[in-house]
Design brief:
There is one protein chain. Helix content is 54%, strand content 11%. With 570 residues, the protein is of the alpha+beta class. It has three domains: 147 residues, Butyryl-Coa Dehydrogenase, subunit A, domain 1 (Orthogonal Bundle); 117 residues, Butyryl-CoA Dehydrogenase, subunit A, domain 2; 136 residues, no CATH class. The strands form two sheets. It has a five-stranded mixed beta barrel. It has a two-stranded antiparallel ribbon with strand order 1-2. Helix 5 crosses helix 8.
Length: 570
């Protein structure tokens, strides 16, 4: 029976027939692995996700965490699922063996974790945050910090968070006011301030919660250059409660099973990570990983929504073909109606294209080189933002395919949509990703990143025949538009319509990945491969043309959003 959580067939195709991940085993780091070990991890991920995560997804939504002023209560299934996940070894799967990791390729680990994000995004978020926290400390912490904090995380005893935002400073980190004062006697810091929107910020799921906190040391300069990073545990090693208090829980539209906390730090003991003044640089290690994780989660939720809609459309009989003559003829499955097919095919291209995007990005981490690092820098805002918009549209389509039923809690698709809505917000909104892409990533190193991306796309399109022609044309237009935007050197005017630039570039990148998939199925027969060919053709002929009006707007030099005065809005 086909899973409605995720498509193992598509994962196998993307990993083995498209990305050829078996070749990674020739690298020293992955020499102990093989196709068999990769498959074993994928098998166990699907098994745990479907057995221990998916069954409480709805319960997680209907029974969100509560705070009685003393402790947070969460349904017991969450703790059980996270314990099983930790025992699987997947939390530290990509980490070095010396730290208890399995040195699994990032691309395989990403494919594995997608099962958990699709089955229960709220429960999987605790694991994702803990993994990101551990990776940051492995990269920038001391051996002692790694021993005391990372190893217990990998054992499933501790969980981790990232504490950036504050009530007055959401994404504007230059306005962070949390203070850290060095205690000369202990060498530790005393951290005081408030943090807001902290996912996994308080709970009783683990022995301890390790907060990574951005704060400003006394005398540090204003702005982001004055930020340092601190480890602030919920409990001290003595077992006593540190000065970290839960001020309250935020109540969310979706993603309800993950606690979202308002935290007060009152003279809490903290340890400096690395050097003072480099906090944001260190935090970007976790933030960039989290941004790819957010994009992955958006894909997972869109994919499971699509699979549920596809199954429903095949089973639900209603209406008759427009050319049917007999009104008494039995109704046909709604998948026969063109508009339903439109929504399903569009959704297929969004979720399978998004899946290709996140796996491609993950493989760049495994094949590290100066070129691949540069390409990943350019792609990261797209990996985060494109699925957050377009895979959410797949969930919107899933509700529409279900009709009135889709808008009720009788079917899960309304929850998938609500859960997916957050992905355009956390770890940097779509607008922030747009500014990052156009304002930093395509201009850095003299535009080398964008040139590399377009070179890769053109190389694929040149070998794809007629289907590659519109992709080549889109490359030329994007290059010309980018040059025109920055010709005057005025950031305000260049960035005013950055969101349109992000949308256009994202669609071009996904068209490229569909073109690449179409090349990978050449000469192969069967329904699966026919579906890939049709999806590639659909995306390039129906979706890629969307970027024309976006680039027209950018080329026009339109400054309407700069000219707008707030009083005109009413």
């Amino acid at each position: 029976m086909n899973s409605k959580v995720l498509s193992r067939r598509d994962l196998d195709f993307l990993l083995y027939e498209w990305l050829d991940v078996e070749t990674l085993t020739s690298r020293e780091r992955f020499a102990d692995h093989s196709r068999e070990t990769f498959d074993a991890f994928l098998d166990v991920s699907q098994q745990i996700a479907e057995r221990d995560f998916a069954p409480h997804n709805r319960k997680n939504d209907l029974n969100e965490p509560t705070f009685d002023g003393t402790r947070v209560e969460i349904i017991p299934e969450v703790s059980h699922a996270l314990r099983v996940f930790a025992e699987s070894g997947l939390l530290g799967a990509t980490m070095d063996a010396e730290h208890g990791g399995l040195q699994l390729p990032h691309v395989v680990q990403r494919a594995c974790f997608l099962w958990f994000q699709a089955a229960n995004t709220a429960t999987s978020a605790y694991a994702m945050l803990t993994g990101g926290n551990a990776h940051l400390l492995l990269a920038h912490g001391t051996e002692d910090q790694i021993r005391r904090y990372v190893h217990p995380m990998l054992e499933g005893r501790f969980t981790g968070t990232m504490c950036l935002s504050e009530p007055q400073a959401g994404s504007s980190l230059s306005d962070v006011t949390t203070k850290a004062v060095l205690d000369q006697e202990t060498g530790k810091y005393r951290v005081s301030g408030g943090k807001m929107w902290i996912s996994g910020g308080d709970h009783e799921l683990s022995e301890n919660i390790i907060h990574l906190v951005l704060a400003r040391v006394a005398g540090a300069p204003a702005g982001v250059k004055g930020l340092s990073l601190f480890i602030v545990p919920k409990k001290l090693e003595s077992g006593e409660r540190n000065g970290v208090t839960l001020a309250g829980l935020n109540h969310k539209m979706g993603y309800r099973g993950t606690t979202n906390a308002v935290l007060a730090f009152d003279d809490a003991e903290g340890e400096l990570v690395g050097d003072e003044g480099r906090g944001l640089q260190y935090m970007f290690h976790m933030m960039n990983e989290a941004r790819i994780g957010v994009g992955s989660g958006a894909v997972a939720l869109g994919y499971t929504g699509y699979l549920h809609a596809l199954d429903y459309a095949r089973e639900r009989a209603q209406g008759r073909p427009v050319d049917a003559k007999d009104p008494t003829a039995p109704p046909v499955p709604i998948i026969n109606h063109p508009d339903v097919r439109r929504m399903l095919l569009a959704s297929k291209t969004y979720v399978e294209g998004g899946l290709a995007l996140v796996l491609f990005a993950a493989k760049l981490l495994d094949e590290k080189s100066e070129e691949n690092d540069l390409l990943l820098d350019v792609l990261t805002p797209i990996v985060k933002a494109w699925p957050s918009q377009w895979c959410r549209l797949a969930d919107d389509h899933a509700i529409q395919v279900h009709g009135g039923y889709g808008y009720t809690r009788e079917y899960p698709v309304e929850q998938f949509y609500r859960d997916n809505r957050l992905n355009s917000i956390h770890e940097g909104t779509d607008g922030i990703q747009a500014l990052d892409l156009l304002g930093r990533k395509v201009t850095m190193k003299g535009g080398a990143g964008l040139k590399l991306l377009l070179h890769r796309i053109r190389a694929t399109a040149a070998s794809a025949g007629e289907l590659g022609v519109p992709v080549l044309a889109a490359c030329d237009r994007l290059a010309a538009t980018t040059a025109k935007l920055w010709a005057a050197g005025d950031p305000a005017k260049a960035l005013v319509n950055a969101t349109a630039y992000l949308d256009a570039t994202g669609h071009l990148v996904v068209a490229w990945l569909w073109l690449s998939q179409a090349l990978a199925v050449r000469g192969k027969e069967g329904a699966f491969y026919e579906g890939k060919r049709l999806a590639a053709r659909y995306f390039i002929t129906h979706e890629l043309p969307r970027i024309g009006p976006m680039l027209d707007l950018l080329d026009s030099g339109d400054t309407l959003l700069l000219d707008l005065e707030d009083a005109w809005l009413g």
